[in-house]
Backbone:
């Protein structure tokens, strides 16, 4: 007996279905340590309304979240905390590095501030800006949705391939000593361009 | 402002010096006398509040003869008089007597000076680092400590996506 199904059925891959479902209900973990956190709150508020993109359910327990938004500078003492929170989040999970400080240390090139969280945890989307406008964070959420749709799998196979370090190249301290770098002024010369001695 | 040199002279002799900048009165005391002087100021002269303890590194400071300065800011609550008691310590083992037994509030202040400058406060009940992570071995506010540190900020394990 032939049923007339026509428009009521369409065929897709299970991976695409799972990704489509996941991308529209991202639950952010707000790891807000500085002024970017304020923009993150503004993004969640009525004017910018991140709820339009399905990621308004911010939870302060990492066990209930699937996207960590690191908003602000991360200092040495905070790195173990950040890594632990990241590990506490259930799979599948993603990470947005929001703002100049989280992405590269920003203006805080000092002994205590980590020069980019991607040296220690994997990052999926970077948001430039100091701090970024809420629209930029929304753009990052849209980019993350696109990434999830195009690479996502139902059992998270795409994560298993990412076994390599994904952060930047040589640290400033690893560069040859003769390299000239632009640095915040030092108290002896007052200059900004100097060699690594 | 009371002349504290005159008040303290019978007990401590000529070891104290005085500096004045506008209404800011400083008493410069040798390191071994700083605790008796503070005790006397607290118990005989009514300086019952310790406002702050600050460290200074005088490396390459013009005219400086000692490496570190430690400044105690104290306040007489009754008269509103403020006094800064300043002392100097030197490498290799900068050390002072702790004043936690005089003012309990000195606990964290001394820990901070220790954390940033490495000045050891003998007799402190719990002289641990307060701002820097435990296990850190340098004193970041010393002038010979490089701005970017010695790589401590990148001395952490890496989590890749596969193990997360």
Residues:
């Amino acid at each position: 007996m032939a049923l007339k199904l026509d428009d009521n059925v369409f065929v897709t891959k299970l991976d695409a279905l799972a990704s489509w479902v996941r991308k529209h209900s991202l639950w952010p973990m707000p790891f807000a340590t500085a002024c970017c956190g304020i923009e993150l709150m503004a993004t969640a508020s009525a004017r910018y309304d991140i709820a339009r993109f399905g990621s308004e359910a911010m939870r302060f327990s990492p066990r209930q979240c699937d996207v960590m938004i690191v908003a602000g500078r991360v200092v040495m003492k905070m790195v173990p905390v950040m890594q632990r929170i990241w590990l506490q989040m259930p799979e599948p999970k993603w990470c947005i590095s929001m703002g100049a400080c989280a992405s590269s240390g920003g203006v805080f090139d000092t002994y205590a501030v980590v020069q980019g969280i991607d040296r220690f945890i994997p990052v999926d989307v970077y948001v430039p800006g100091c701090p970024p406008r809420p629209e930029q964070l929304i753009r990052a959420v849209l980019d993350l949705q696109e990434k999830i749709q195009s690479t996502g799998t139902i059992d998270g196979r795409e994560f298993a391939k990412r076994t390599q370090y994904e952060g930047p190249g040589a640290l400033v301290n690893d560069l040859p000593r003769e390299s000239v770098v632009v640095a915040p002024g030092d108290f002896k010369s007052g200059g900004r361009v100097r060699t690594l001695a | 402002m009371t002349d504290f040199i005159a008040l303290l002279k019978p007990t401590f002799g000529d070891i104290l010096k005085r500096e004045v900048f506008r209404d800011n009165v400083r008493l410069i005391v040798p390191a071994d006398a700083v605790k008796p002087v503070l005790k006397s100021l607290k118990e005989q002269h009514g300086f019952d509040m310790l406002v702050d303890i600050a460290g200074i590194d005088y490396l390459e400071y013009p005219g400086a003869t000692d490496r570190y300065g430690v400044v105690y800011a104290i306040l007489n609550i009754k008269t509103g008089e403020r006094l800064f008691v300043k002392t100097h310590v030197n490498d290799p083992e900068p050390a002072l007597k702790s004043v936690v037994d005089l003012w309990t509030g000195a606990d964290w202040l001394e820990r901070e000076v220790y954390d940033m400058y490495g000045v050891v406060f003998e007799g402190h009940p719990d002289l641990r680092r307060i701002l820097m992570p435990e296990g850190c071995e340098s004193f970041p506010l010393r002038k010979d400590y490089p701005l970017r540190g010695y790589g401590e900020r990148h001395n952490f394990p890496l989590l890749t996506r596969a193990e997360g």
